[in-house]
Amino acid sequence: MDFTKIRCFLETCDNVTILTHKSPDGDTLGAGFALCRFLRNCGKMANVINSDEFPERYNFLYEECEPQKFEEKTVIAVDIADTKLIGSRLARYAEEGMIDLCIDHHVSNKYFAKYTYVNASASATCQIMYELFNFMGTKIDRQMARCLYTGIATDTGCFKFENTTSAAHIACAELMKYNIDFATINRKMFDVKSKARINIEQAVTNKMEYFFGGKCAVIAITTDMMKKSGIEPAEFEGLASIPLQVEGVEMGITIKQRHENVYKISVRTIETIDASKFCREFGGGGHIRAAGCEIEGSFEEVKNTLVNAAKEVFEG
Amino acid sequence: MDFTKIRCFLETCDNVTILTHKSPDGDTLGAGFALCRFLRNCGKMANVINSDEFPERYNFLYEECEPQKFEEKTVIAVDIADTKLIGSRLARYAEEGMIDLCIDHHVSNKYFAKYTYVNASASATCQIMYELFNFMGTKIDRQMARCLYTGIATDTGCFKFENTTSAAHIACAELMKYNIDFATINRKMFDVKSKARINIEQAVTNKMEYFFGGKCAVIAITTDMMKKSGIEPAEFEGLASIPLQVEGVEMGITIKQRHENVYKISVRTIETIDASKFCREFGGGGHIRAAGCEIEGSFEEVKNTLVNAAKEVFEG
Prior knowledge:
The structure is a homodimer.
Chain A: H1 3-12, E1 16-19, H2 26-41, E2 46-49, H3 59-62, E3 74-78, H4 92-95, E4 101-104, E5 115-118, H5 125-136, H6 142-155, H7 166-175, H8 182-191, H9 195-206, E6 209-211, E7 216-221, H10 223-229, E8 251-259, E9 262-269, H11 275-280, E10 285-286, E11 290-296, H12 299-315
Parallel strand pairs in A: 1-2, 1-3, 3-4, 4-5, 7-8
Antiparallel strand pairs in A: 6-7, 8-9, 9-11, 10-11
Helix pairs in contact in A: 2-6, 5-6, 6-7, 6-8, 9-10
């Protein structure tokens, strides 16, 4: 599928349901609502749906896009690499082969739709959407620009991470010309935290343990800490990045309690340490800088297992 | 002064001292070292100097630019709006009228040099330098690109703040093409904190007080807290932004102890609250979103004075 074919597809489709991935983030929602608005601006019917509720923190993306009533004829998935990410409530869309088109930027895309467009070098699906609208000569409106900017900004950590491309900067340079409130969006996306989130960050930081001359830091998140802080599951995102914020730390290990003796491990690394290789030892995997696995045992056992494995990394 | 004249100036000058502002930041150092490298690449002699020591955190900007020995013939100031910002050790440059050219992006520039170029709509002096090099057809090298990227990123809070322009994004889109380690730079500039900094952030957050239904938050930084945390003065930057990180807070007041009964107040606001107007009541001033003043009295007296004044803001 190329942009010319997507244009044909979008021109001829109608009554469109846009699927976004479960635990929705700024990119899937930004791409979904920008596409929805584009279709409605063309006089078509369109809705964005999700297996979960749309999180309150993204309300500025969806509040100008009330659901419409229509008989669904077309299904488009955005930013969904795998049918597993659709979520149980909407799983039938995959099971019944109802997904017509998928637009995505994940290299791991499983090509589950009838037609698929993947650009794995794009920083975000919203960057692809921007380039598609550009190609089609679409009149982007301010709300579409807000959606697309949000997706690119959130998927790149506000242009901070390695996945940020020149094209992402250029797209946002153009999107800013629609007089969008990007500073307010960025404040909401990156700076503001709930009191519960601040509480758990503090609790976690206070109990951080350092190993190997401060190069490895371990944090624990117990079910008890989660309850006490009053944090919502949606606010957990990014806690695993806390250890790497400390000067000198090259490997951060987060031990998060799932059940009584089951822990989910998240590993974050910088420089040359391979987090994925580290986690594979425990049956997990992921990327070179961010990976995970699950280990059973008491907290102390799990921690000791991980620190012993990290000893290999730091002391060879 | 326009770009054509600056080109003439740079082509004909030699033995150049580049002045950067005291308490140097990424923009003044980025602009200074990019210019220094450009001049050296042209076969000229050039040094960057500062009234203070170059902070360790910016070592990647200056470590490839060892001082040269020469008889100074030309002096260029970068990112310096006012001679007061040169610092005492180098004050003679202003007092003796030795500054030939100043390149800056502050609207408040005092035009103290023989020639001045100000573009107040630029996000950073490094953005001006990028556009100047572009205009001159300069061959930018990787280290120059790192310097310019750092200045733009740091002055815009990594493209997060309101002062970020489309031109800033476009400049960085181009600078990234020099294969710079922007993600490592951003991590160092925005994510990594010393243990001392983490300690004081926690101490400050733990004692944060809320007023007017959580819309106003007050933090205190006492000399005692500073001593206990072991924090360096260079690491204080940005503590005043902590209150506004809490959901619902519209006005953050930071009360920082100067001496026994003297406190420096920093006010940060969002939405419609005028921080500058608030601080003017106490003989201070600043910008609409960030302002300051100094108040004498005991800590409790100072806090009560400020909260009473804030009552006007929130309860009219």
